[in-house]
Amino acid sequence: MTDDAQTDQLTFQNPVTRFPEITPPKQHQPEPGLDQELVPKTDRGQRSYRGTGRLEGRKALITGADSGIGAAVAIAFAREGADVALSYLPAEEADAQEIKRCIEESGRRAVLLPGDLADPEFCERLVDRAAEALGGLDALVNNAGRQIAVADIADLRDEQWTATFETNIHAIYRVSKAALKHLPAGSTIVNSTSIQAYKPSETLLDYASTKAAINNFTKGLGQQLAPKGIRVNAVAPGPIWTPLQVSDGQPKDALPEFGKNTPIGRAGQPTELAPAYVFLTSPESSYVIGETLNVNGGTPSP
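Above: the chain's sequence. Below: its structure in token form.
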């Protein structure tokens, strides 16, 4: 990243040029992909996120926390004063270890919990292990996602459709349900949806369908839990440069132009999402429930 990219998120700056416009080369990684092997590298806030104590003493579980948006949220939460449990696939261990180091360098505790969220039993164990290791749980970020581009519905296999729904929406239901016995009043749940919920790409039928379901689930659960003092909201990212894109999340020919069709003219960096998750988790958003906060570079959305 350029020197401008190291400017923290609180400094006055032009959002068009805060991060460079990228032209990623055609590349491939096997699913789920690693941040360490991504070209160009991402900014997950390692040197550009400055905390202000907004989550002091909080205990958070973040899924998909090893790379991309989840990693940026984990770093931001730690910089804001939270201890963090990281959920990720075993194949992503190298990225998870890097984020653990970043969290510990920020003076907070990091707990590593590898496993597959497509396994219903793991979802239950994950929450209990996170609560035990952190000494409680008062923040949940359901961020893990699976995205595989398929150009023709005739080639979209039942196995892929099912696997995408298992990871993207079934796991959110299972993890959120398991977390409720640990979450006291004042706790928060933030789910990762997508611009795809509103403006689906023709190559992402299964992925976009799950993201629309996440929006609906968020609004319904938000109403159900509001009287208990637990707030549920969502963040809808636009085109954010992460390993998801190169592990078949985008057609390879589309990678060099990724994100350039946004009004801001560039793809977003993961760290640009983090403040939205911090806001929805912090007490300052106490009257925000069932909301989807769009962070997409200016693309119109409901």
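The first helix runs from residue 68 to 79.
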